[in-house]
Amino acid sequence: MEPILRYCSVEVSFHGRAVIHDVSFALQKGEILGIVGESGSGKSTLLKAALGLLGTGGLVTRGDIWFQGKDLPDLPERELRRICGAEIGMIFQDAGASLCPVRTIGAQMAESMAVHRKITGAQAKEKALSLFETLQLKDGARIWESYPFELSGGMQQRVGIAIAMCMNPPVLLADEPTSALDASVQKQVVEVLLRLRRLFGTAVILVTHDVGVVSAMADTILVLKEGNVMEYGPARQILQEPQNSYTRALLAAVPQLRRA
Q: What's the pTM?
């Protein structure tokens, strides 16, 4: 099968200094790829490179990022904006911080849908309430009318997922979606992402430093250190029989709970 998203020898630089070096991987339809590594290894930068979110001084300086026959870094800004949200969704690490604090959830969701297609307010609300139900967010009508600060951290995160899924994009980029949550809410978010894959065939790139989350979700794993790929392959193989010394050290650092 032709991959839905493919990184080919990608190098990313900031102000002329390379921070991502020769990274290649492919994402199939419905696949969950986990990218793991310590803080500062370049995990989030890889996701932002696909959507043109590298900010001032950040550039893809070598290689290609192919999506449905298009090389994303070479696209004009207007064309890339049509893809962002509609065909590639993004879940940010802190959903609460990515939401406007002075506008209701409903207003923000309606706007995100209206950017990509003609839709009435009633249609946008119907779509949002359906997504809330899929994500097991109770009392969707109240959430639609709420401001972000009126929701818990777990609810904000699931609203962030709902906004990313408004247009049912075939690819979802999740930047540490569970890192700011407690264990019980982490479990809920993991279940939500797995449900989206099951219901819509959504392919997911999951960036995290939590090996437990990756082991529960990922089909394949890419291990990153200082912008370099240490290991890439099936999740079961990497978790049970890691070949790289850095991967072994990363796995050995995971706390183990033992019964007395």
A: 0.88
Nearest to 48 by CA among 159, 175, 168, 180: 175
Name residue 66's beta-bridge partners: 6, 71
Q: Are 5 and 50 in contact (CB under 8 A)?
A: yes
The DSSP annotation for 18-45 comes to EEEEEEEEEE-TT-EEEEE-STTSSHHH
CB 173 within 8 A of CB 92: no
pLDDT in tens, 20-62: 999 999 999 999 999 999 888 999 999 999 999 998 889 999 9
The alpha carbon torsion through 147, 151, 154, 157 (nearest 10 deg) reads: 0
For the chain, how big is the Rg over CA atoms in Å?
Answer: 18
Q: Using CA atoms, how far apart are residues 245 and 230, in angstroms rounded to an integer?
A: 9
- Side chain identity, residue 255: P
SS3 call for 137 = coil
3-class SS at 176? coil
Q: Tell me: the pLDDT tens digits for 167-202?
A: 889 999 999 887 766 777 777 778 888 888 888 889
Can you list the domains of the chain with their CATH numbers? 5-252 (3.40.50.300)
pLDDT tens figures, 87-118: 999 988 777 778 899 999 999 999 989 888 88
Determine the Cα–Cα distance for residues 167 and 117; give it in Å rounded to an integer. 9
Q: Which residues contact 170 (CB under 8 A, 6 or more apart)?
A: 4, 29, 87, 201, 202, 203
